[in-house]
Amino acid sequence: xxxxxxxxxxxxxxxxxxxxxxxxxxxxxxxxxxxxxxxxxxxxxxxxxxxxxxxxxxxxxxxxxxxxxxxxxxxxxxxxxxxxxxxxxxxxxxxxxxxxxxxxxxxxxxxxxxxxxxxxxxxxxxxxxxxxxxxxxxxxxxxxxxxxxxxxxxxxxxxxxxxxxxxxxxxxxxxxxxxxxxxxxxxxxxxxxxxxxxxxxxxxxxxxxxxxxxxxxxxxxxxxxxxxxxxxxxxxxxxxxxxxxxxxxxxxxxxxxxxxxxxxxxxxxxxxxxxxxxxxxxxxxxxxxxxxx
Length: 293
What we know:
Shape: elongated
Number of helices: 12
Structural class: mainly alpha
Number of strands: 0
Helix content: 55-70%
Distance between the termini: 71 Å
Largest sheet: none
Order of helices and strands: HHHHHHHHHHHH
């Protein structure tokens, strides 16, 4: 009913601020809604798509977003950015809030606010993401809380944290390593090399373990050989081609034995060996002729 009501048309025009302190001051001036007022506004939004009702609901809960964002101030990110992400979560919660459930909006919105802040923290805390799976994200934030209390972990503390969070010691150690790692600046701008003699010289180091020309050449040669082999196999009769494929070119399964092929074709294993030998001889001659062309 109100799929696109939260667009650029919903402007918090009354909230005129210049700094974070003035923003916080302004948000605290908006009155907290009573349960009755909140329910009436929620119904107007839910059933009628009333944007003015949505605006009042959002403005009255901005102070709560600020309160939640303060708990994430230890990640080295700007408080204003954390609040902004939390506000996005608040707006998503207001859009999805069903007033008939009988709960307060703040109880419903906490999940959405934290989810947006969590996503922002994980995107911006390091250049390389420290947590990608749901389990790793949960461990990341729980471990941060534990570290604030314990400081630097020793073996005994790692065991205590692993037991408390219900994860393995290996998972805790791995996440601890990721969290302790620092981003490094690799300045590979060679334009200023003559001016700055202390420039990181990693850019000029040659990797002797990698040769792209050889890799490409080898790949092209393998493709060339595969193409020749495919053409040669196509000139054999079906039975001979099938025996070669099952005996030597079957990558998915183990090598088929002579006895297994004998049972399949209803002939002796010796006859299969002879057919294989003749097929290999024919194949060799065909490939030699193909290379002469």
